């Protein structure tokens, strides 16, 4: 990485275990041909990630670098993110290979997130993975980012024993969908947001409260100091038929509530208790809406074997608890991936590619172009 631009927590030339999340497995002692390792790259937003999984889904090594410059700017700047991915990938891939005690020549298959997401980052990551695949005469699997999130709970190391069909509530900064997962490659979108994604709403409300960006974790922490019944905020679309979401009106209600406290905008900071009560009330409203939509979705999916939450906002404990109660009321298990697999990561990308291979697909999608929009309905199974 050049010295003029270091957007990461730690420069790639000085990576240590504290800078990268590593996961190792004793399976590395097995002969490499038995592993059939797959290397995946994720660069759809502002996290640069690489992971290597064995063909059976065992995690051999993984690494994630999160960019920090965007916090100063109040949000992700696509051009900066893409350049940072380009700077980081070579060293990150080599470090992950080193941790897995493998070389590039040992990799049987390459995969990369090809959409949806920020087009610059998608081009950088998928092109890098394609280049490695072409140089080594290996197949390349183009992975749909949404599909990767919703298949994550089936990762063998998580021990969920999750069977099709199951219902997934995908909740992140860029996506908010309710999906019936029928089998690998077959998904029924039951509903989605008609305006903002839930994660986007969290970040914007956090900014209103002076918490900076990314605001989701900071808002959740502040909410622990407040009362979730302090303010009667709206629950958009709650009680209506269908499984769609809407968070724009909720954001507006929070903005107006803050204006009553500081109508001129002259205060440098809102009173701590007021901000905490607003945070808690907002968080409860979002959780209530998600739970209500999950109830509707389960009514449309009577054969669902489980209720799953995935995506970055799935890390929110209040949301998890609300959905867990819904699952319990229907007598089905609830599952949420561990926090590190809720946010963007390459393990989920690798596993999604492996799920396709296990399902009998034979993808070699070297010509598949990156695309900022890629609905699940347009993810066509690849067979010979």
TrEMBL record:
Keyword annotations from UniProtKB, A to Z: Acyltransferase, Cytoplasm, Iron, Metal-binding, Transferase, tRNA processing
GO biological process: tRNA threonylcarbamoyladenosine modification
Protein location: Cytoplasm
Major place of residence: cytoplasm
Iron among keywords: yes
Class of the enzyme per the UniProt entry, highest EC level: transferase
EC number(s) stated in the UniProt entry for this protein: 2.3.1.234
A Gene Ontology term for the protein's cellular component: cytoplasm
Record flagged with keyword Iron: yes
Disordered: annotated segments: 364-384
Protein family: Belongs to the KAE1 / TsaD family.
Function according to Swiss-Prot or TrEMBL: Required for the formation of a threonylcarbamoyl group on adenosine at position 37 (t(6)A37) in tRNAs that read codons beginning with adenine. Is involved in the transfer of the threonylcarbamoyl moiety of threonylcarbamoyl-AMP (TC-AMP) to the N6 group of A37, together with TsaE and TsaB. TsaD likely plays a direct catalytic role in this reaction.
Protein name, per record: tRNA N6-adenosine threonylcarbamoyltransferase
Annotated gene: tsaD
């Amino acid at each position: 990485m050049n010295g003029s631009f270091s957007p990461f927590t730690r420069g790639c030339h000085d990576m240590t275990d504290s800078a990268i999340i590593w996961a190792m497995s004793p399976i590395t002692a097995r002969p490499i041909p038995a592993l059939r390792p797959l290397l995946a790259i994720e660069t759809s937003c502002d996290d640069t990630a690489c992971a290597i999984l064995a063909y059976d889904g065992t995690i051999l090594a993984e690494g994630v670098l999160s960019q920090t410059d965007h916090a100063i700017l109040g949000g992700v700047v696509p051009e900066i993110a893409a350049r940072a991915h380009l700077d980081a990938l070579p060293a990150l891939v080599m470090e992950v290979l080193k941790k897995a005690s493998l070389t590039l020549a040992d990799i049987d298959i390459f995969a990369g997130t090809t959409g949806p997401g920020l087009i610059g980052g998608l081009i950088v990551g998928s092109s890098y993975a394609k280049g490695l695949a072409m140089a080594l005469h290996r197949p390349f699997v183009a992975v749909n980012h949404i599909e990767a999130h919703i298949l994550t709970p089936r990762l063998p190391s998580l021990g969920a024993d999750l069977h099709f069909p199951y219902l997934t509530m995908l909740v992140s900064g860029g996506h908010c969908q309710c999906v019936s997962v029928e089998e690998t490659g077959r998904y029924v979108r039951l509903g989605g947001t008609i305006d903002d994604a839930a994660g986007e709403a969290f970040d914007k409300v956090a900014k209103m409260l002076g918490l900076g960006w990314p605001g989701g974790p900071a808002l959740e922490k502040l909410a622990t100091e407040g009362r979730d019944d302090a303010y009667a905020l709206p629950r958009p679309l709650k009680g209506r038929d269908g499984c769609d979401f809407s968070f724009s009106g909720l954001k507006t209600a929070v903005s107006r509530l803050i204006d009553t406290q500081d109508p001129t905008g002259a205060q440098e900071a809102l009173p701590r208790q007021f901000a905490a009560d607003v945070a808690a009330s907002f968080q409860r409203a979002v959780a209530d809406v998600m739970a209500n939509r999950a109830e509707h979705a389960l009514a449309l999916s009577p054969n669902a074997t489980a209720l799953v939450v995935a995506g970055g906002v799935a890390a929110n404990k209040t949301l998890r608890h609300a959905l867990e109660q819904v699952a319990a009321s229907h007598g089905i298990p609830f599952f949420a991936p561990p926090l590190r697999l809720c946010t963007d990561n390459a393990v989920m990308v690798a596993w999604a590619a492996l799920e396709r291979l296990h399902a009998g697909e034979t993808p070699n999608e070297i010509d598949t172009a990156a695309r900022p929009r890629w609905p699940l309905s347009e993810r066509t199974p690849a067979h010979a």
